[in-house]
Amino acid sequence: DGGITQSPKYLFRKEGQNVTLSCEQNLNHDAMYWYRQDPGQGLRLIYYSQIVNDFQKGDIAEGYSVSREKKESFPLTVTSAQKNPTAFYLCASNAQGNTGELFFGEGSRLTVL
Amino acid sequence: GQSLEQPSEVTAVEGAIVQINCTYQTSGFYGLSWYQQHDGGAPTFLSYNALDGLEETGRFSSFLSRSDSYGYLLLQELQMKDSASYFCAVRGYNDYKLSFGAGTTVTVRA
C-alpha cells in the first residue's frame, strides 16, 4: 500500500541534543512538507521541498534543518537551537500540480526532557 | 502570505447540522481545502474547492466565494465520530506553501 511513514512515533530527547525525524513516502510524490503542531493549535509549516535537492523555509524554520537527497525521503533535524522543540511533527506529500490534497504521515511526537 | 480565520469551537447534538466558516486574506491562491483531524491522529483530506460554489461529498459539503474571501464546511447528520478538529487551508500562487487555519474543534453530543 502506498503511503507516508514517519519514525519514530514517540521520541524523548534531552536538552541540547539534536534529533532527526524520518519521513519516507512511496507515493511517487514530488513535493514533501514538514509541519509542527502544538496542543490545541493549527499546523505551522517548517520546511517544504518541491523537487529533489531543493527545499524552502516555511514559516518557522529557525532551529530546524532538512535534506532532500532522494525523492522518497525528507528527514527533519531538530537542532539544539530550537528553543521549544516539544511538539507533534507531521510530514506530508503531494503530487506536483495537485494543489488541494496533502497526504500525511501518522506523526512523530517529540518530548524534550 | 496567507491568513485564515476559523471559529475555535463548535458544539452540536447528533443529527444536527454544523457550518464551519473560514475567512481568509491572501495575495492569491489556487483553492480552499478542508481537513479533519481526530485527537492524536494525522489530518485527513476532506474536500477541495478550486472554483466558487458548493462541492458535496456525502454528508460533508464545502463552499467557496472568492469575491467574499470566505468559505465554509458543512457537516450534516452529525455523528459522534465527527467529533474532531477541522482545518481550512490554502495554497498560494507564488510560493506553493499550503497554509492552515488554527482549526475548529467540533464536539458532538448525544
Structure commentary:
The complex is a heterodimer of chains A (113) and B (110). Helix content of chain A is 0%, strand content 50%. Chain A has strands spanning 4-7, 10-13, 19-25, 31-37, 43-51, 54-57, 64-66, 76-78, 87-94, 103-104, 108-112. Chain A starts with a strand and ends with a strand. The mean pLDDT of chain A is 93. Chain B is mostly beta strands and 110 residues long. Chain B has strands spanning 2-5, 9-13, 18-26, 29-37, 44-49, 53-57, 60-65, 70-75, 84-92, 98-100, 104-109.
| Uncertain regions spanning at least 5 consecutive residues of chain A | none
Dominant shape of chain B: globular
Q: What percent strand of chain B?
A: over 45%
- Write down how many β-strands of chain A occur, each being a DSSP E stretch of 2 or more residues: 11
Q: What Rg of chain A do the Cα atoms give?
A: 13 Å
Low-confidence runs of at least 5 consecutive residues of chain B: none
Counting helices, strands and paired strands, the structural category of chain B is mainly beta
Biggest pleated-sheet summary of chain B? 6 strands, mixed
Characteristic key phrases:
heterodimer; A: 113 residues; mainly beta; 7-stranded mixed β-sheet; 4-stranded antiparallel β-sheet; B: 110 residues; 5-stranded antiparallel β-sheet
Brief synopsis:
Chain A has 113 residues and is an all-beta fold. Chain A has strands at 4-7, 10-13, 19-25, 31-37, 43-51, 54-57, 64-66, 76-78, 87-94, 103-104, 108-112. Chain B is mostly beta strands.
Write the topology of this structure.
The complex is a heterodimer of chains A (113) and B (110).
Chain A: E1 4-7, E2 10-13, E3 19-25, E4 31-37, E5 43-51, E6 54-57, E7 64-66, E8 76-78, E9 87-94, E10 103-104, E11 108-112
Parallel strand pairs in A: 2-11
Antiparallel strand pairs in A: 1-3, 3-8, 4-5, 4-9, 5-6, 7-8, 9-10, 9-11
Chain B: E1 2-5, E2 9-13, E3 18-26, E4 29-37, E5 44-49, E6 53-57, E7 60-65, E8 70-75, E9 84-92, E10 98-100, E11 104-109
Parallel strand pairs in B: 2-11
Antiparallel strand pairs in B: 1-3, 3-8, 4-5, 4-9, 6-7, 7-8, 9-10, 9-11
